[in-house]
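User: For a benchmark we're assembling, each entry needs the component sequences followed by a predicted structure for the full assembly. Here are entry 17's components. Please fill in the structure.
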Amino acid sequence: MIRRLALAVAVAAGLAGPSAYAVEPAERLADPALEARARALSQELRCLVCQNQSIDESNADLAHDLRVLLRQRLAAGDTDRQVLDYVVARYGVFVLLDPPFAPATYILWLTPPALVLGAGTLLVLRARRRRPDPELPALSEEERDRAALLLGERG
Amino acid sequence: MLIEIGHFALVLALLVALVQGTVPLVGASVRSRPLMDLGRSAALLQFGLVALAFAVFMHAHIVSDFSVRNVFENSNTAKPMLYKVTGVWGSHEGSMMLWVLMLTLFGGLVAAIGRSLPDTLRARTLAIQGLLGFGTLAFIIGTSNPFDRLFPIPADGRDLNPLLQDPGLAFHPPFLYFGYVGFSITYSFAIAALIEGRVGAAWARWVRPWALTAWCGLTIGIAMGSWWAYYVLGWGGWWYWDPVENASFMPWLLGTALLHSAAVVEKRETLQRWTVLLAILTFGMSLIGTFLVRSGVLTSVHSFAVDPTRGVFILVLIALVIGGGLVLYALRAPGLETGNPFAPVSREGALVLNNLLLCAGMATVFLGTFYPLFAEVWNGVKLSVGPQFFDATFVPILAPGIIAMVIGPVLAWRRGNLRAALRRLAPAGIGALIAPVIVFAVDRAAPPAALAGIALAVWAMLGVVTDLADRSGMAKQPLGSAWRRLRHLPRGTWGYAIAHFGVGVLIAGVTVSTAWRSERIETLHPGDSIEIAGRTLRLVRVTEGDVANYHTQRAQIVVERPGSAAMTLYPERRWYPVARSQTTNTAIATNGFGDLYLALGDPDGQGGWVLRAYYNPLVPWIWFGAILAALGGLVSLSDRRLRLRLPAARGSLAVTSAGSADN
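Assistant: Structure for entry 17:
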């Protein structure tokens, strides 16, 4: 992530980090299905000693250890959920890149849909308020009476 | 001596900014011409002084003057010349210098070419720009002095972060800052308009070119940053929802909304208040982005607490700029003209919808970026908000915007007919339905999100083509006259078409490269080969050597593909001893439709090397799309109608928009 930091404004000078990349061939599991699950899981786990990197992307020692650990759990027959719980129990929710829907993240997850709904409602209300077309001249008293009469007769 | 001149110029610029920020304001309120005109001279002088200081600072880097602390900390005699120059903006102090250079550049430009502006509006705009300059210069001189000296003078410097020693860095920050800071001028225009108490078509016409200019710069800057990350990071990603990326993406989103709503003000004299608010918030986001990156709050709340001087200074600046702007807005906005009404289904309506979605998207990015910070400060919970959150929220919010983006330009102003518009867009709609079906037929494992992405991309691209064909009257006229009509469409129309087409290209690139990338990570010994995406990669050898300020390990890899000539790629690793860090230099072979991407990993100690090979289909389209979008902006900018001088509307509101007939 240090590289990324450098990226956007290029100026995170002074923060030098390890060159970062990903899973090593030696770590991989023989079973492709299991390995695919391991890859998916490791993209959801944060490398704790890095800045904003998943353990899938980092070559920090800790990330390596976690990758090996979660593969051991998978090989032992854990479900994805169990593996994540296992890691969270040791490192806290901070390790989850995909924040779970929990009291601490209600605001986080509910605000975006609320924003869209709120904005949508506002639009609809505004449209209702503006419905009358100002370019059509307003009806005169007499015309209105006639219209009422006509409508009344039909209805 | 030279250094002192630079330092002195910077202090002088601060004083000039103070004059620029006050005298013309007084002048405008008492209608004194000389006082108002002072704003122009001051803006030009301020730019000149900052440019002088910048030049001196750059010179110190070029000649490696290690008596300057910043040069010592970020340069080295062995560093190649290109990076001595670009290293100028590779540090905190240097990037702030670039920031203020752009700020004063925009002020200077308005002073130099803004002749058609009414005197009072120009004076007030330049005054606000002057105040912004004052704040930034005070920040630089007070907390981040680039001319700080060292004694005794060190023999050599600590070298620049090697990741920044890359040609990409040479151009990414200047473009980014040009855009980022360019929105300062739309902010100044907005504040000036609030002081004046009127916002009309004329105002929008003056503001729109500046907003477009800044937006183009920001678009290119972000695209370059993403491309740089792509080839530097070594695993083929191009966007990470990283706070630093979000810092530049948030003003981009608001700037895009601003661009469109300013067009509505110009053409239809409606949405005035909303546009002014957007102008304030867009620059506010630029400042917040700066805060995010510059204060150290990113690393953690604690690193911010250790040395809060800079962060607190920027926070105060943000509070003044956004808070002051919003207070003025609250006081003055109710007095602004109310806009012309329009039906919900109309071009205005579509633009309002897109504005709202862009703003909701921006708010989501903002929330995701700052939430970990809030949560930690609020109740001490340390949590992470990763790409998964942004993918799950931002993408669905913006997707309807893409649908509307195609329909909007086909609708009439004021009151449109949705059914007729959809009928006109039928070819695009059919294409958008067929394309995913074809893709699904070819790849049954295609994820639904990817199919939706393809439908959107085709809809956006074909939508533009359909609209252009329609505007040319191709169906009813001989091809020759249709072609002539097409050529004579206003530049603004072409600008929209190119930019919106670019968005479609970008979506295609994002979708396809995400869903269909392939990856091989293997340990290879010289002579070994692997297969990826129908290509055979053979490691010939890895050579080592010392070059300039680094040690290199360079792999020679022969790529063979049945039916085409073999080629050789050289992925490389570099070790920078002075900075003590390692970089990857990837090797990328592209044909415009896909990239073969190679990165060299660690040696295994037994003569083998880890090679990471990726095939990223359509990934170049991401940047093509962004370039098209920026190009569309430039084409719009060249529209004569944007540069037409309007009869100066002093003291009257009689200015109506002229070219509202088309687009």
